[in-house]
């Protein structure tokens, strides 16, 4: 019985892991934001693409895929959904039909600031009670982990 007790006590509790707490908070933040954008008929992944397109005139899907760490097929599926919703246009080059560019429609361009406000509100709901110094420190640590680990995939779900 003594050896069994030792083995049990050697098993670390779930909440003893930093990853547990990161995932716990991240899930709550992500789910709350997902509900907010879903009310606007947009998924989080679609929001990320819309936001990426907002700063430019048009973007080639392969560039979006590289920026977001997604496959071109994944970007294509999301683009199809956004085109169907009237938020994005897809144009082909007259000389090279394989070349396509994605751009926001007027409706998509109007929606991005609305969704950005929802993202800001979501952040404030979860992190607004932290001091500016704590927020900056948490962000700095997270960015450092991303940099050191070479993480590239943009969180979309």
Textual characterization of the structure:
This protein is mostly helical. It has one domain: Orthogonal Bundle (Arc Repressor Mutant, subunit A), CATH 1.10.10. The chain is built from 7 helices and 2 strands. A two-stranded antiparallel sheet has the order 1-2. The chain is globular. The model has no long low-confidence stretch (mean pLDDT 90).
- Helix tally? 7
Mean pLDDT: 90
Q: How many extended strands?
A: 2
How do the SSEs run, as a string of H and E? Answer: HHHHHEEHH
Q: State the secondary-structure class.
A: mainly alpha
Query: What is the C-level CATH assignment?
Result: Mainly Alpha
Terminal Cα separation, in Å?
Answer: 45 Å
Q: How is the CATH topology named?
A: Arc Repressor Mutant, subunit A
Largest sheet, described in full?
2 strands, antiparallel
Write down the Rg.
20 Å
**Poorly predicted sequence stretches spanning 5 or more consecutive residues:** none
Strand adjacency order, main sheet: 1-2
Shape: globular
The level of helicity is: 55-70%
Please tag this protein with its features.
157 residues, mainly alpha, Arc Repressor Mutant, subunit A, two-stranded antiparallel sheet, 7 helices, 64% helix, globular
Topology:
Elements: H1 2-9, H2 18-38, H3 44-54, H4 61-68, H5 72-84, E1 88-92, E2 100-104, H6 106-127, H7 132-149
Antiparallel strand pairs: 1-2
Helix pairs in contact: 2-6, 3-6, 4-5
């Amino acid at each position: 019985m003594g050896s069994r007790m030792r083995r049990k006590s050697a098993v670390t509790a779930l909440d003893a892991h930093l990853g547990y707490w990161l995932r716990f908070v991240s899930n709550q933040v992500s789910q709350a934001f997902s509900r907010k954008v879903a009310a606007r008929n947009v998924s989080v992944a679609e929001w990320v693409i819309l936001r990426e397109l907002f700063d430019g005139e048009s973007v080639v899907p392969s560039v979006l895929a590289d920026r977001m760490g997604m496959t071109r097929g994944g970007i294509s599926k999301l683009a199809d959904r956004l085109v169907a919703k009237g938020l994005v246009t897809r144009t082909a080059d007259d000389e090279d039909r394989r070349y396509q560019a994605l751009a926001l429609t007027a409706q998509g361009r109007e929606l991005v600031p609305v969704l950005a406000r929802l993202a800001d509100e979501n952040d404030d709901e979860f992190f607004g009670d932290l001091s500016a110094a704590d927020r900056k420190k948490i962000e700095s640590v997270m960015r450092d982990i991303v940099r050191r680990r070479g993480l590239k995939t943009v969180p979309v779900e």
